[in-house]
Amino acid sequence: MKCLKDRLISGLLLLLSLALCFFSTQKFREQHKKETLFPSEGLASREMLSSYFPGLIDTPGDTEVYIYGGQNPGGNILILGGAHPNEPAGYVTAVILIENIQVSQGKIIVIPRANNSGFTHSEPQEGNLRGYSLETPGGKRFFRFGSRLTNPIHQWPDPTLYINPSGQKLSGQESRNLNRCYPGKPKGHLTEKIAFAIMEIIKKEKIDLAIDLHEAAPEYPVVNAIVFHENSAELASYSLMELQQIGFEFRLELSPNNLRGLSHREWGDHAQVMAILLETANPSQGRLKGKSSLSLIIEGKDRNYSKAAKFGLLFVPFDSEGIPVKLRVARHLAAIKILLSSFNELNPEKRIEVNHMPSSSQVKLKGIGQFLCPPYRK
Amino acid sequence: MIKNIFKILFLLAFFIFTVSAREKKETALPVFEQPLLITSAGQGAEVYLASVLAKRAGLNSSLSKIAAPKDMKNIKTLVLVLGASLKGLGSAGLDKAKEKERINLLVAEAQKKNIPILCLHLGGEARRGKLSDEFITFFLPFAKMAIVVKSGNKDRLLSRICEERNIPWKEVEKAADALKPFKEAFK
Q: Domain count of chain A?
């Protein structure tokens, strides 16, 4: 009798464990689902990154490439979001472009999830949310909040010391940081292959200007910044002055030539493209942040950061109002718009004409969701 | 009637006096000559902004982030763009001491050749702090004139240095606004 009872309890515990495993696996697998994007009518074609480098076929590094324009010759622009999936403003800005723009002259290529693998997990011990919802006129849209690094399930183990394709020595986990792996390697590990594929796009599509959208912690010195390769110094300087005129303060930072593997350095060196990286201030990725919450991601509010600002420890102003994601997206949109107009001024023979790009003031006023498609659109 | 004529003459004389005094004050600003050499004092990226401003102003300028005395041949104005960047220093293969030494040599050469120095601080608040302030306090006193962006002078460090040494200075709201005084400073 006792034996039967023990068996029954063991069986129940086993069933309970299996049920727990099943449900947690479902949650885990949900992280691998891509949220649907709804490109605007201006979309000329949608490719996969692997079409530029077949080495990515059937890998978690393969990702969508959205191409706009191309009918009338002009400048060719690449805009990269999601190189670091824990920097929501970069990703959301790319999505807003995809869902709104039309290009009447030149070509714009947008890669919203540059490190697709990084969107499939979150950083251990950070307590980050799986994602966040943005309210659109037709309902909520969910977006993944991922990790700065490639998922270790897709690239493992990390070396003790990582020597990147440009010869820079870095800590081992940086081997999974897309923005340390340029110009990539065709036979390297997954992140190096992604970097190589992006270099292939730049070369094959004859990109003139490439913009990498990022965010940085408010305590990091290179924040609210335009980081530029020296071959885009004039473009960056023109743009900074124009941005100041419309009320956006940016700092100008030259890409260091002794810090290798970053987009703003290697895109310029290896493909002679004008390379720009934009940084906004994101408290949800900072070391001083308090509890991870939706408010931290969306509203950018954090008491610890407000205190840190009072002690003069931050490189951006920060108060109880926080730095909401809509303001950060507005900064990115303003910078892209000004970079494109400055590009036109400096390269009149390679003009780029973009229509229906939401303005920064509209995004600040109405919020991000007003410029995203509702979730049910086919 | 005569009283009124005297009144009018007095007002006219007063008007002429104030206008000429104002003009005198304006012409008291140093006038720099071209060509100019633009270099950084601290390796901040605003040196590129200065170069764009010079281009927009139609000035005959050359840019060298790591200019040396040999680059000052045929140069009639030295433009020092104040503001330090650790990344910039590292990228140029310099540290604080080496950068100061480089600027010291340039300043010495400028003094030897009687080349005036125009200092610009264009980075605003972002280009202030301990390291930048060292370059500002060290090299601004050598300027014949300075143009500074307002947000970088909230604590009046730059204006105080200028006023203590009778260095004419102009404060502008934004970097782009520096174009006008920069252009006007040259013949």
A: 1
Evaluate whether residue A356 is within a structural domain: yes
Q: Decide if A19 is inside a domain.
A: no
Quick one: B141 and B107 in the same domain? yes
- Per-residue pLDDT tens digits for A29-45: 888 899 999 999 999 99
Which of A220, A224, A254 is the best mutation test for B, with the most CBs of B within 10 A? A254
Give yes or no for B90 touching A (CB within 8 A). Answer: yes
Decide: A224 and A288 in contact? Cβ < 8 Å: no
Q: For residue A145, tell me if it sits in a domain.
A: yes
Q: Tens of pLDDT along B5-46?
A: 667 666 666 655 554 444 434 446 788 999 999 999 999 999
As for the ipTM of the complex, it is: 0.81
Range of the domain at B4: 1-29
Q: Which residue in the block uniquely carries the two structure tokens 């924040």?
A: A223
Convert A100-131 to b/e letters by CB count within 10 Å (16 or more is b): bbbbebbbbbbbbbbbbbbbbbbbeeeebeeb
A151/A159 Cα distance (integer angstroms): 15
Beta strand A225-228 with A43-48: parallel, antiparallel or unpaired? unpaired
Choose the mutation target among B40, B48, B127 for the interface with A, i.e. most A CBs under 10 Å.
B48
- Whole-prediction pTM: 0.89
Contact A331, A279 (CB under 8 A): no
Distance between CA atoms of residues A182 and A177, nearest Å: 10
The per-residue pLDDT for range A224-274, each reduced to its tens digit, is 999 999 999 999 999 999 999 999 999 999 999 999 999 999 999 999 999
